[in-house]
# Entry
Amino acid sequence: MTLMAQAAQAPAAMVHLLDGRQLRLVGGYGLPSQWASTPPASVSSTLSGLVIARGSPVVISDVIADAQVPAEAPKSVMGERAYLGHPIRDADGAVTGVCAVLDRRPRPWQPEHLTAVDHGAKACAGLVIEQHSTVRADETRRLLVALLESLQTGVAACDAAGRLVFSNKANQDLHGELPQDVDLRAWTRQRLASAPTLPPALGPLLRALAGEHLRDVEIMVERPRQRPSTLLADAQPIITADGASLGAVVTMQDVTQQHSAAVLKDCELTIRRLLSGSDTSPADGLLRDVITTVGQMLDWAATEFWAIDEVGNVLRRRLCWTDERNLLPSGSPDRLGQGEGMPGRAWQTSETVWARNLNTDAGSGAQTLDWGMLRSAVAVPVPIGSVTRGVLVCYSAYTEDPDDVRTAVMTGIAAHIGQFLERRRGWDLTAQLGHSRDEYIALVGHEIRTPLTSILSYTTMMIDDPDLPAGDRAEMLRVMQRNTGRLQVIIAKLLDIAGMQSGHVAVESRRMDLSAVVRATVATIRNRSAGRDVTFDIDVPDETILWGDSRRLAQVTDELLANALDWADDGTRIIVAVSTDGPAAQLTVSNTGPVIPTAERERLFQRFFRTPSAISNAIPGTGLGLSLARVIVEQHGGTIIAGTGDEPPGTTITVRLPTERPGR
# Structure
């Protein structure tokens, strides 16, 4: 501006830049000191505004006498009288400011003066263009940085020398701070010499720097005590138009949740396939496959299935799976009450229960005080209809944060298990009905028709031949009496079963001693076994108190011991034991003899069922004794099951009965 003022032989010069609808003074020479604090002025109220409006130079010899001066502009600017202004244009030719010289006295302006101001305007235009470019570049850079920082995707870039030039917050959150002002390639080689792992972004970034284009590269990131994270990396080199390398850029996206959701859905579908159409496979085998699949597919350290023991009103661990590390603490209980431990709380609330930290979770102390390497767990109630009948528990070696997706899928898996158990129960009942119908026809056809035929035949003979010898008549009457008694037993058992199942015959629960009932029944069966080489081994405590119907439970004991005696081999023992198991009493009767096949063992307690070997060996029976025993036990709120062993071969029947008073 000094050179411009001198060339124009003017005492003062100034530069205005356009700022919206105002002009801002950005530089001057020879101006009064008070101009430095002059605020931006309206374009229409200044002589420079006239230059901008016209888009061409404005030459004024005397601002007071010149008619082209705007009416609102002052006729004298701080005493200045002469004005010469030239527009400043940007790269696109648009007027962005004014370069002007002033004089305190009126004067004519010569062509060389106009040329000097023109040169000054052009010089200012170059500076303005450069400044605008710098401002725009800075604004673009700030906008780009703000955009990248706002992304949840990690972004990092390096220059051609391998030095980090940018890393946004998301990338730092994923990988931590990356080294600055060093060649990342050399740093990586040094780091690998002392540490087995590198920040995940480095591998893809350096591969891109070497010229590779990467798309959807999956990277697993291990973190202490946390589930591995799954990242997807995209990376590419940055190349100029002439093929020179400017560096490389990598983007990293955390897709752990999406990956987890997909695995959860796959697991649920797998469980559904496992349990669909499974009407013949053993239930425990399928449930074991289910908890194994859940553990392996969802990366749990251990899984358990707890079933409700309705006799004792407790949860019992029915099945368990662990990975190869076997992290489940030893000595943890196999039985839990309502509200005890993770399984008990899920049972009590009928809601999914999470424990983020097992060692600090107060409720988990009922299972163990030292969970070792296990960190978290989830317990999911298994419903059958509207009632919780079991609990699925999964343990993790990682710190787990509960989330709605996993809770929903785990609840869905538990629902599939519940539907399977309910469906299996329905199938079993249907099968039992079918078998009962067939066996009933067989019973009527043989067990009832045969004695009736005998009675009718002898009755007819005695009527037709009144002169029968007394000895023959007495023998016929004895046969008729025996067959009548047999029919009476069948009818009595049928009436008992039907009456108790329909509710017309109820058990009369009183405080009683199961041990006394068992000892009395054993004594009776011993008398019946006279002549048999069978020993009774009794392990019964002095007293086993429970609430029940002693007459009905004596029927159960009699049926079990009589059945054991029928099947016991000579020279063997029948073992009878009574014990208590928490809130339940347990009676077991074992004998040595032929092993009952699994398919037949599951039908032992069905009405009218008799094993093929019982029929072929002519072992007496109606197929109602064990069925009646089951009905009586179930009326007491208990269970009865049959098991077999190979060493020595034989059968064990176990009865479990609640010891607490009904209704409490």
